[in-house]
Amino acid sequence: MPVVSIKLYPVDNKDRKENFHGAQLLYVGWDKHLLFYAPTVFCLPPDTRFRDVVETHLANAYGVHPEFSGIDWNQVCWLKSGQPWTPDMDKSIAENGLEHKDVLRFQTPGRDGLAGVGV
Amino acid sequence: MDMQVKKKLGLKEKYSLMTRDLGWETTYESMDDVYPYMKFEGIKIHDWDKWEDPFRLTMDSYWKYQAEKEKKLYAIIDAFAQNNGHLGVTDARYLNALKLIMSAFPSLEYNSHRGFAHIGRQMRGVGPAVACQMQSLDEIRHAQTQIHSLSNYNKYYNGLHDWRNMNDKMWYLSVSKSFFEDAMTAGPFEFITAIGFSFEYVLTNLVFVPFISGAAHNGDMAAMTFGFSAQSDEARHMTLGLEFIKFMLEQDPDNLPIVQGWIDKWTWRGVRVLTLVAMMMDYMLPKRVMSWKEAWGIYFEENAMALFDDLARYGIKVPACVEQIRKEKDHISHQAWLAFYTAGGMTNFHTWLPSEEEMTWLASKYPDTFDKYYRPRLEFWKQKADKGERFYGTTMPMLCQTCQIPMMFTEPDDPTQIAYRETTYLGDKFHFCSDHCKCIFEKEPEKYSQAWLPAHQISQGNCFAEGADPTAPDFDPIKSVMAYWNLQFGKDNLDFEGSEDQKNFAEWRQASTKN
């Protein structure tokens, strides 16, 4: 037990999967688009189709950016925990192997944000 | 016959009688049972009598000093209330800085009071026990005078009506709340390092420059008065913190690595909390005192580094995080304000875009970063706002597990890339804004894995209004979270432009100066 404590210290992870009533957390950030100040957290059922994550949830979070509507999703580079990753758009997030609290980043080559500095 | 009057007690004798003589060695119980918190952190103290209080303050003189200060303070606060002092501030935008600070600070002071009361009981040495008890009283006094000062504003302006409730629940306030709760739930020696040293000694100037000098510059006599009243205690608090560090280091060489670890941790945690202060200095004060970057240069890079030079003789090193902080000083205030601007529908204060004149000031203070990285974002939002499309984020941000700040900080060497760090603990993933927050987590994962992160708690359904039924067909989750925070959407938040505060302030000020 690394924590320094006067007696046994119970582990109480408040964000374990079972506390989300069947849903799971998924974090997504759009690289080089700092008009959005931080990656977004989504709380979704594991059977959510990945295409719906993109077309509904990401559109809601990032659609205000002028580059969003023109994204060719077949050309997007995805990173999971910083490593290259390929989603199957028609499979669910669970079938895509995404676990609770996984973090995805997507990169849109050719659409590298405004002002030349990733806005 | 003349009265034979004994010579008055000297300060040293009096201090000894009213502190050291209050202590004793127990005989029926072991001293370790009476002071159960003294050993588990690993700090070794061999001789408590070596602890010297440079102020040699005793309780009788403490009451006298503080009573004098209270009289002056309340005379000014009364005069402020009776003369509509709230109309004397530079601009109603200033009130939002006050709302932010006042939503956080009284609770911090109160928790500081609780922490010092606890260690005042637990410190085995009588000298530090008495000093901690007096600091505990100071801190509750600070909380009280802050609450009284803010009540004058609460009569007229929105967003200050329920700071205590909001402090426990609202997303951004979890940052400062978690800082103090982390300290209070540590052992007594870590607490005094965290609050007495890192916060009071190293960082407090950076709070008082924007907070109190900012109040003075912007005509807020109420906040300025309680600030000066508190500031006279701070010198004593700083000394207590510093003396404690030196005492621990002098008592046993084994204490050095433990103390160094705490200094490293709490310097980083403190600086992360100060992000809110940086934003306040650069964006929220209509009349600015100095930029965050300038304040950081003076109060940290010059003052605090001189302190570390002094501690070097004990073997203490400058925390490694200082290098990253040096790089971030050009960025954090802008990153924070852009975050609050976007999240302006979820705060208890108003946000706005800086005017052209203010952007010129920011560009002059941040010549390497503002025009290049931050002006384009502000101008984009301005174009949208001018078209009636003022942007508010509709989603929740990912948060750092340790500092609880949204993951808005960029890589130290690349201001275009958000910094992502993660680790796994007991099969679960945890995410961080920086190497330093990750390192703090990994040293005590049991502690930080239990963080009450607002975005996650909302997702779990734990932040809805009392009695709400999330399964009802007409359930509106955002409205329900607002009710849980006791916020009135559109009245207590959204843009400053067009707000009730802006309108009322203009009308009242005009009425107070014209017929």
UniProtKB/TrEMBL annotation, chain A:
GO molecular function: phenol 2-monooxygenase activity
Pfam hit, one: Phenol_monoox
InterPro entries: Phenol_hydroxylase, Phenol_hydroxylase_sf
Protein name: Phenol hydroxylase
Organism whose genome encodes this protein: Noviherbaspirillum sedimenti
Taxonomic lineage of the native organism: Bacteria, Pseudomonadati, Pseudomonadota, Betaproteobacteria, Burkholderiales
UniProtKB/TrEMBL annotation, chain B:
Keyword set, alphabetical order: Monooxygenase, Oxidoreductase
SUPFAM superfamilies: Ferritin-like
Keyword check for Lyase: no
Cross-referenced InterPro entries: Ferritin-like_SF (IPR009078), Phenol_Hydrox (IPR003430), RNR-like (IPR012348), YHS_dom (IPR007029)
Domain of life, source organism: Bacteria
Keyword Zinc assigned: no
Domain spans labelled YHS: 410-452
GO molecular function ontology, one term from the record: monooxygenase activity
A Pfam family it matches: YHS
The protein, known as: YHS domain-containing protein
Gene source species: Noviherbaspirillum sedimenti
Taxonomic lineage from the root: Bacteria, Pseudomonadati, Pseudomonadota, Betaproteobacteria, Burkholderiales
